Structure formats: C-alpha cells, structure tokens
Amino acid sequence: MSKKYSIVIVGGGSTWTPGLLKALCKRQESFPLRRLVMYDINAGRQAVIGDFARLLFQEEYPELDFSYTTDAGQAFNDVDFVFCQMRTGGYEMREKDEKIPLSLGVIGQETCGPGGFAYGMRSIGDMIELVENVRRSSPEAWILNYTNPAAIVADALRFKFPDDKRILNICDQPVNLLRSYARLLNRDVNEFEPVYFGLNHFGWFTHLYDKAGVDLLPQLKAIISQQGFKPADAEQRDASWLDTYAVVADMLRDFPDYLPNTYLQYYLYPDYKLSKLDPHFTRANEVMAGREKRVFETCREAVQAGSTKGASVVHNDAHGDMIVEVAESIAYNQQRIFVVIVENNGLVNNLDDSAMVEVAATLGINGPRPFGVGNIPVFYKGMIEQQFAYERLTIEAWFEGSYHKALQALTLNRLVVDAKKARKVLDALIEANKDYWPTLK
Ligand code: NAD
Ligand code: G6P
Ligand code: MN
C-alpha cells in the first residue's frame, strides 16, 4: 500500500482550483491522499469552490478528509505538499496592471512589462508570508508554486530563503506547448523529451526528442511555419489566446533557430501586440466575464442541484495535471521530466549563476535534477540578460524599498525602454498599488 499524502491548496478560491481537484480525483490510485485542505484569505470566494469540492469528493473520493479554511495555523499543520496559486489584489488589480500602462501607450499584461512588474511587487510579500506560515508547522513540506509572475516570485523566494530546497516554482505554459506539439504531430506528449532554456515566460525549446532519439523539432518548425499553430485545447480558448498561439509562426519566420514560448511575442512585437489590445476591455475583463463567471456559476449550480455530474469546471487540463504529476514524481521518486524554474548555477553556462532559469529537469525525492544546456548564442543571451536585469532589479526594489531600482527595472524592460515613460508608468502604478507595495523612496 503506497503512502498517502496530505495537501493544502493555497488560493482555494482560484478559478483553477476545480480543475486541480478533478486532476487529484483522476489520480487517486497513483497519488492517494489522506487529507486535503483548501486555504484562502477570501472566505466567501473560497466557500463557493469549497462546497463544490465537498460534493465532488462525496461522489468521487469518499474516504478523503477534506476541509476548507481561512485559518493559516490550521491549514499548514501536517502537510506534505502545498499547491499554491494566489493572486494578491485579485482581478481588480490585474485590470489596473493592464489598463494603467495601456493608458500611457505601453503594453499592459499579467506577467509581461509594467503589468507584471506591478503584480510582482504585490506577490512578493504575500508569498514570503506564505512560506513562513508553512515552515512554522511543516518544515519538510514541498511548496509547489504557480503564483505569478513566477519569474519574479522565484527570484524573491531564492533571495529570502536561500537554504530552502523544497520550494519549486512552476509554470504550465511549457507543458501547454508540448501538448500542442503532440496534437500537431499526432503523438503522445509522454513520448517527448524536451530541451528548453530561458527565464519563465521567456524561453525556447531547442530540441524535442522522441523515445527513439529522433529530434522532432525540425519537423515541428516546418509544420508550424506552414500551417500555423493552435493550442491543444483550442476549442476551450478565448479568441485572444488563439491569436497568441498564431503569432508563434511569425516568431519562427523571424527567428527560426528554436521554438519560442508564446510570451516572447510581447517583447519581440510590442507594436503589433499593442495594436491588438483594447485599453477599455483587457484580458482581465475577458477572464472576469468568461472563466471566472463560468467557474463560479457552475460550482454554485452543481451544489444547488446536489450533483457535480456534467459540471464543466476544467478549462485547461494541463494546469491541474502538471502540478499533481510534479508532486507524484517527487513523492514516489519517479524522476519524470518537467520544465521547471531553478537556480542557474551553470545550467546555462554563459548566464549569471544566481538567475532563476527555466529548464528541463527530472523530479524525484531529492527535488529537481536539471539538465544543463551549455552556452547559448548571443541573441538569446542578450534578450535574457536584459530581462534578467529587469527581474533582479524588481526584487531589489521591493527588498530595499528603492524607487531608483524600480525606475531602472522598468527602463530595462523591453516593453518600456524610454526612461521618461518608465517614470510616468511607475508613478501611476505606485499610486494604484499603495495598499500593496512597500513604500519606494
Ligand atoms: P483568482 O483571483 O481567481 O484566484 C486567486 C485566489 O487567491 C483568490 O481566491 C484569492 O482570494 C486568493 N488569495 C489572494 N491572496 C491570497 C493570500 N495571500 N493567501 C491565500 N490566498 C490568497 O486568480 P486565478 O486566475 O485563478 O490565478 C491564481 C494564480 O495562479 C495567479 O497568480 C495566476 O497568475 C497563477 N497561475 C499561474 C500559472 C502558471 O503557469 N504559473 C498558470 C495559471 C495560473
Ligand atoms: C498560461 C500561463 C500562466 C497564466 C495563464 C492564464 O497558462 O503560463 O502563467 O497565468 O496562462 O492566463 P489568463 O490570461 O488566461 O488568465
Ligand atoms: Mn506561466
């Protein structure tokens, strides 16, 4: 009989939680749980998902000890894995992250440019508090973190907790891309062994081997350049995501070396992306009117009907599957390969050792064993170093309360560049974030 695990989901009221719960149900044989707690600071929001969860587990996981709480002391006792997906400031602040830069002629996006900067400056404090809360009662728990902007959160946690080897920051976009490649090639995603390098939301696949050792990347690049590119779950995606995937073919035409992460388009084609963004109806509005509304309505309706059967609450399988598979690979020392965020230390040989890079790694009981990629060519090195400097200055601005470093950070961001523009955007974001950011002097 395998060991059974105790899990806490932080951000129980997240739009992604129901998908995660379904992924846990799906894997109850291979990754059995003894206890699951949902934790959130917003009781009302979490209760909707929590009541849905209770019903779901009655139906699909009856022996599971399930509860939800806003009490951190209660949540983090006796925990093996923390799955974290919080959003400090909620969609209300995401909307400002997107609209304030746009009102000044700069791209506003959840994790890229000044929007990602503003969000990072909000996430750092709450993520530090979370790690401290967990460590107080569960010093050995694995903290698997999705909270964005993952690049900045990862760098801040590295700096604050340098000796903590059980914090792992992850992103589902590489696996979304791998699943999309699998659909195009009509292959199983589990056959792939990828080689990847970069920062979070800022990386490239350089090879994609199959079990026979054939590199599928050349074939994939040819298909995408000729036929275009769609997400694996295209049928469930909003129009803005379909456009985002389509632009991968443009990136390949201009930079044919590797297969790029979709997020690179904000940095490579800022004029085009700016022209596609509506300053009065941004992605935050699209999510609030779409995913958020749908998830909460569906959960409420299922509870009223007394059954979760047929309730469609999963909008992206990759997200829930990834975090559960990561936990399973660690728990049972499976050494499966995932693309994860780790400290560089020579993995990308010609980049700063302390940068938090995103690369392929096997995951087991000792954590990630990442694969190095050697030296990277000048173009990619230049792109990454500029973004790394922006990210590092952002966390330094937070820890030091430094306006000067915040201004340097935004000036270095490829979506801003002009220092006068950087100052204007920064001042407007400081005003909007005064309840969340440290004071910058
Ligand atoms: P959401 O606003 O629907 O959910 C976030 C939840 O976190 C809310 O219920 C909120 O009350 C709660 N929360 C806020 N601060 C908290 C704190 N300090 N402690 C505990 N709970 C807190 O947002 P969402 O769209 O579902 O996204 C959740 C998070 O997951 C975001 O950070 C998002 O960017 C991230 N995400 C990351 C990836 C990735 O690839 N890394 C993928 C998807 C989502
Ligand atoms: C991808 C990214 C995440 C991002 C998510 C949702 O999966 O990897 O980091 O949070 O998309 O973005 P959305 O705009 O749909 O909320
Ligand atoms: Mn991501």
TrEMBL record:
Record keywords, A-Z: Cobalt, Glycosidase, Hydrolase, Iron, Manganese, Metal-binding, NAD, Nickel
Query: Where does the record place the site Increases basicity of active site Tyr?
Result: 110
Molecular function terms in GO for this entry?
A: hydrolase activity, hydrolyzing O-glycosyl compounds; metal ion binding; oxidoreductase activity, acting on the CH-OH group of donors, NAD or NADP as acceptor
Q: Note the Pfam families from the entry.
A: Glyco_hydro_4, Glyco_hydro_4C
Residues that hold Mn(2+) according to the record: 171, 201
Q: Which residues form the active site?
A: 172 (proton donor), 263 (proton acceptor)
Cite the InterPro entries for this sequence.
Answer: GlycHydrolase_4_CS, Glyco_hydro_4, Glyco_hydro_4_C, Lactate_DH/Glyco_Ohase_4_C, NAD(P)-bd_dom_sf
Q: Which SUPFAM superfamilies match?
A: LDH C-terminal domain-like, NAD(P)-binding Rossmann-fold domains
Q: How is the cofactor bound?
A: Binds 1 NAD(+) per subunit.
Q: Which residues does the record give as substrate binding sites?
A: 94, 148, 283
Task: Give the record's GO biological process terms.
Answer: carbohydrate metabolic process
* Residue ranges constituting the Glycosyl hydrolase family 4 C-terminal domain according to the UniProt record: 196-416
Cofactor(s) the record lists: NAD(+)
- Family membership noted in the UniProt record: Belongs to the glycosyl hydrolase 4 family.
Name of the molecule in the record: 6-phospho-alpha-glucosidase
Query: Organism, per UniProt?
Result: Affinibrenneria salicis
